[in-house]
Amino acid sequence: MLNTLQRHLTPILERPPLAALVVGGLIHLLGLLNTLCFNSEGRPYLSSDDGLWYNLFKIAIPFAVPWLITAFGRRLMLTKMNQVMLKYPEMNPDMIIRLKPKGEVEFINRVTREFLQQHAFPLHNPLALLPPAVQEKILHRNSQRLKISCNTHFGEKSINFLIRDDDEGNLFITGRDVTANHRLQQRLNSVTTQLSGLTDALDTALAHYDPLQFELYSSVENLLEEMVRAQTDNRTELTHLMMIESQEDGQRQAHIYSVHQGRVRCDPTPILLSADARDHAINYGKEEVKFLNFEEGHGQSLEQFQQRFHPEVRAKVGTIRSFATYSSGNTAVIAFYSGGDVDFYDASVLKGLAITTESLSRVSLESLQIENAFIYAMDALARASEANDEDTGAHIVRINLYSRAIAVAMGLDYDFVKTIHYSAQMHDVGKIHISPNILKKPGKLTDEEFKAMQAHPIYGAKILGDSPQMEMAAEIARYHHEKFNGGGYPFNLKGDQIPLSARIVAITDVYDALRQARVYKPAFSHEKALAIITEGDGRTSPDDFDPRVLAAFETIHLQMDEIFCANPG
After folding, report:
1. Fold identical between 184-366 and 386-566?
2. How many whole angstroms separate alpha carbon 118 and alpha carbon 422?
3. Which of 42, 62, 424, 519 has the fewest CB atoms within 10 Å, measured from its CB?
4. Which CATH architecture best describes the domain 184-366?
5. Rounded to whole angstroms, how far apart are CA atoms 456 and 562?
6. Number of helical H runs and strand E runs in the chain
7. What whole-number distance in Å separates Cα of residue 479 and Cα of residue 546?
8. Is 153 exposed, middle or buried, given 0-12, 13-18 or 19+ CB atoms closer than 10 A?
9. What is the three-class DSSP state of 506?
10. CA separation for the pair 23, 33 (Å, rounded)
11. Rounded to two decimals, what is the model's pTM?
């Protein structure tokens, strides 16, 4: 019951005019009842005998007293609240503003007052702090209650304002300094963007990945450049990065990358770091990513701070005041910064770079080992195919080199050039199935023996199978005896029906056979072999060959001679 009465009386007592009307009316009502019930003389509550002024005061005083008391009490309470908040501003660092329905300033705390004065805003118009669109919405608000939140920037400061009103139209505005939150958001956005840039760069690197051509240091250069380009927060500036790889002999090889205006350059001269006390900065980041900033007056001079690094590193990087470090596997990465202090977010980006670099390095090493094992197996198989032939192992080496040179001269793409360089040697792998008596026969082959010999391309293709990695080798083995004019074997294909790789190997095989001594002929000079291929000799004709391949052969014929002379056998 009391709570209900208090809830209904509080809104009345908080408003002096309403409180005066209720309390004064109640007093007059009680006075009138008193007159009616207890006035034995029959005098009225208001009498003309008492005079006009007496009656006026008698009427006004019951209204005036509660009005004065509630107005004074309300003012006293507001003053007391102001005093407390002005006395201890650090207890409430936010801006607080209260405006009356017509816009008059009822309350501004000290923080707001100082902020208005600092930014030359008038004290009587604190709405000037708000964006024009928000001011317009406040001035033209309708009967609906306001609830507006907005961010406003004042130089480097960012303030979040919350605007609300009450049922009587009073406006409450609070402003909170969210600069730290804003900067943190910027840092997080920058880190996210940089890590995303690293992911994109890694995706690009893997899309064009070739274990035979992979170069770790140039890949790191690309990753670092992408990371720097993606940075949106310039609080700190990455100036140098050092990548250290552990060697088998215990030494470490370090490469220094310098960053200038978004461009990255790798110093071509590595630094050899022997294991000593100056490994501190490397070992510092072994367990987790670490960062360190030089601070004056913390028991260490700037010169002592430099001792964490090798003299050659200091010579290339300059004075070091901030760095972050992280080790991943056999790779350690140290980043050097200028500007503001390095923090956890800078270090997190460095960790992403270190892990990405180490991953690329491991993938490259393992892929290269697999690729080398594959090429070694192909080379061994090619040599096995030559075991019962009169050709020596140097023949397959030369065929590889000839084919690569012609492919380059024809302007073919890198993948084709690389693949034909190790696939061409497989052209005669099918000879494993041919009798040694036929392969080593000193005289002319019989028709039956020649027919058996003509089957070796088919045998070769069957040996190599359908593996995608062996695709070019298989097509070379199957078709390298086909002729462009259709006079070859085993399928009598012609023109573009013959794969390009086989057309290239066809001319290199003929050239090398002409240059070697056979039981039925001596070794021909380069000039004679060139003349036979380009002019014909009755057995060999220029139209046996693809005109484009023949043109490339003529362009580099001297290089073909150099290859033959450099690989005798």
Report:
1. no
2. 76
3. 42
4. 2-Layer Sandwich (3.30)
5. 30
6. 21, 12
7. 13
8. exposed
9. helix
10. 15
11. 0.51
Cβ atoms of residues 337 and 323 within 8 Å: yes
For 41, residues 6+ apart whose C-beta sits below 8 A from its C-beta are: none
- Nearest by Cα to 316 from 273, 371, 269, 361: 269
Phi-psi region of 42 (alpha: psi -120 to 50; beta: other; left: phi over 0): left
Q: Could you tell me the two tokens for 291?
A: 């960062």
Answer whether residue 193 shows pLDDT above 70. yes
Domain boundaries, the chain: 2-87, 89-177, 184-366, 386-566
Architecture of the domain defined by 89-177: 2-Layer Sandwich (3.30)
Q: Name residue 113's amino acid.
A: R
**pLDDT, tens digit (0-9, with 9 covering 90-100), for 85-133:** 555 555 456 888 888 888 888 878 888 888 888 888 888 888 888 899 8
Q: Is the dihedral of CA 464, 469, 473, 479 positive or negative?
A: positive
Q: Which CATH number fits domain 386-566: 1.20.140.10, 1.10.10.10, 1.10.3210.10, 1.10.150.130?
A: 1.10.3210.10
Q: How far apart are CA 188 and CA 192, in angstroms?
A: 6
CA dihedral 26, 27, 32, 37 (to 10 degrees): 100
d(CA 567, CA 559): 12
DSSP per-residue string spanning 453-503: HTTHHHHHHHHHTT-GGGHHHHHHHHHTT--TTS--SSS---GGGS-HHHH
